[in-house]
Specification:
By secondary structure, this protein is an alpha+beta fold. Helices cover about 35% and strands about 35% of the residues. It is built from 7 helices and 12 strands. Strands 4, 5, 6, 7, 8, 9, 10, 11 and 12 form a 9-stranded mixed sheet that branches. Strands 1-3-2 form a 3-stranded antiparallel sheet. β9, α6 and β10 form a beta-alpha-beta unit. The longest helix is centred in the last third of the chain and has 15 residues. It is globular, with a radius of gyration of 19 Å.
């Protein structure tokens, strides 16, 4: 299943099972069956059909939604190596920590909101009738440390389905190796390949480093909301940056 595919279920119980798995990220099969009050035989049939149709996958005794993963890409910059890959559910803790570390150092409130949502939902990848999201992570070292991320928030509403919101960031310790640029380019490429026409990212006017970074990659200021934030008692404008993907 691609994260942009439209969902369609021929049986209510299969939709209920998918919704439960999707909203929890990873669930034990016996836990899902008990929660949904399904007989073992019916649960097995619905699980098999959802797996065959590409909606869910089994990982040991657990279920996850079966989103299509992109092939990892390896990068090297002056002897420094990193990999960009699709994020997995077990990346959640390290990824959330990385987002918070980047957000707090530069007034990146949209990214901080993403971290808050991850903490609240305890789910990384989402794909439902209202909204979908995915992440790519940049990993370094043998322990697969998450050095940075790019996140795409994909509205399913028809009149907004050609747009997406992107956040991107890299830990300060790993800057200077092109990780941020590689992540941004990966997110833009994915969005373009999947038919999106425009990406947005909103940043406080005080975060000049982030504004310069996006402008340096072809993003433009589309709108400014005056005094939208209040930081340490001072009003700060919000700058909405955007990039057209068909140009």
């Amino acid at each position: 299943m691609d994260i942009t595919d439209k969902l369609s279920f021929s049986h209510k119980d299969r939709k209920d099972l998918y919704d439960y798995v999707e909203s929890h990220g990873t669930v034990r099969k016996d836990e899902a069956r008990r929660y949904l009050n399904m007989e073992p035989g019916a649960f097995g049939v619905h699980t098999t059909i959802l797996r065959r149709e590409g909606y869910i996958r089994e990982v040991g005794d657990r279920l996850q939604i079966a989103y299509q993963e992109e092939a990892p890409r390896e990068y090297e910059s002056d002897g420094f190596e990193f990999v960009i890959r699709t994020a997995h559910e077990d990346d959640q803790k390290k990824l959330t920590e990385t987002i918070r570390d980047v957000a707090k150092e530069g007034d990146y409130f949209e990214a901080e909101t993403v971290a808050d949502v991850l903490d609240h939902e305890e789910v990384l990848i989402r794909h439902n009738e209202v909204r979908s999201r995915l992440f790519f992570v940049a990993c370094v070292g043998d322990d697969d440390e998450v050095a940075g991320w790019v996140h795409l928030d994909l509205p399913e509403t028809e009149f907004l389905s050609h747009t997406a919101v992107l956040t991107v960031g890299c830990r300060s310790a790993y800057r200077g190796h092109g990780i941020g640029s590689a992540l941004l380019e990966r997110g833009v490429e994915w969005a373009r390949d999947h038919g999106f026409e425009k990406l947005y990212n909103s940043i406080p006017a005080t975060n000049q480093r982030a504004l310069d970074f996006l402008e340096g990659h072809g993003w433009q200021t589309e709108a400014v909301r005056s005094d939208h934030y209040k930081i340490d008692g001072e009003y700060v404008d919000e700058v909405m940056m955007a990039v057209d993907l068909d140009e």
